[in-house]
């Protein structure tokens, strides 16, 4: 099975309701400037030039 979730689309999560373990392969390029927004939380993750993630509030202030 394959599922795709476009950037900026409706939020999503995967839920395994079956009795067997599920294996999930996530594919992405993790480009510079990549961002992840968590719409139900005051949280945004931004990929930095060094390849690490910086976490911020939605107003851009540091998430500490």
Low-confidence stretches: none
Give a quick account of the main beta sheet: strands, pairing sense, barrel closure.
3 strands, antiparallel
Count of DSSP-assigned helices: 0
Whole-number average pLDDT? 83
Strand-pairing-aware structural class: mainly beta
- As laid out across the biggest beta sheet, the strand order is 1-2-3
| Series of secondary-structure elements, N-terminal to C-terminal | EEE
Approximate helicity band: under 10%
Count every beta strand, where a strand is a DSSP E run of 2 or more residues: 3
Question: What is the strand content?
Answer: 15-25%
**Span of the ends, CA to CA:** 38 Å
Q: Give the overall silhouette.
A: extended
| Rg, nearest Å | 15 Å
Describe this structure in words.
- With 64 residues, this protein is mainly beta.
- It has a domain at 30-64.
- The protein is 0% helix and 20% strand.
- The protein contains no helices and three strands.
- The protein has strands at 35-38, 43-47, 53-56.
- Strands 1-2-3 form a three-stranded antiparallel beta sheet, with no helix packed on it.
- β1 and β2 form a beta hairpin.
- The model has no long low-confidence stretch (mean pLDDT 83).
Short synopsis of the structure:
With 64 residues, the chain is mostly beta strands. The chain has a domain at 30-64.
